[in-house]
Specification:
Elements lengths: L1 E2 L3 E3 L6 E2 L7 E6 L4 E9 L7 H22 L4 E3 L3 E5 L2 E10 L4 E9 L2 E9 L4 H12 L3 E2 L12
Antiparallel strand pairs: 1-2, 2-11, 3-4, 4-5, 5-10, 6-8, 7-8, 8-9, 9-10
Length: 156
């Protein structure tokens, strides 16, 4: 069970925690499916009228980071059109892709008025569809503050 100040998540027993490499980051591996997940979160303070601008900036930064990492490792990366989905509590930002080493990856960012939660998954074994199903399996388990941007309702 992950109990972070920004979210909580209960994972099944087949997810093995990997040694921490960076501060508030959570890394897990499912050996049977060859999936690695990285979760992290940071505090942010976003006004309702700036959430879309923040989500677009997040997409731009993440996409550039994917291209920079591929370049550093001498790989070609294919990224599919990122999506920003509006919710009363903020925005969900998603994209997926693959590289020429047959690694599939997917990213989901949860942008609320008080935090940014990052979920990144990658695999060298599964198809993109199988990875997206695993992403959905984990993403729907993340518990976070669902207070609407207008501040009129409560928590998840």
């Amino acid at each position: 069970m992950i109990e972070d100040p920004h979210f909580s998540l209960e994972l099944d027993e087949f997810w093995q925690r990997l040694p921490e490499e960076a501060g508030e980051q959570y890394d897990f591996r499912d050996d049977a499916r060859d999936i690695v997940i990285t979760l992290s979160a940071v505090s942010i303070d976003i006004t309702p009228d700036s959430v879309d601008q923040f989500a677009r900036l997040l997409i731009d930064m993440r996409m550039q980071a994917e291209h920079d990492a591929a370049l550093a490792f001498g790989l070609n990366v294919t990224l599919y059109e990122p999506i920003v989905m509006p919710f009363t509590w903020g925005r969900a930002v998603v994209y997926y892709g693959h590289d020429d080493n047959d690694r599939q990856f997917s990213y989901s960012g949860i942008v609320t008025r008080g935090s940014l939660i990052n979920l990144y998954m990658s695999t060298g074994r599964l198809s993109q569809q199988q990875l997206l199903e695993a992403m959905d399996e984990i993403g729907t388990r993340i518990v976070f503050d669902h207070t609407p941007l207008d501040g009129k309702h409560g928590l998840n």
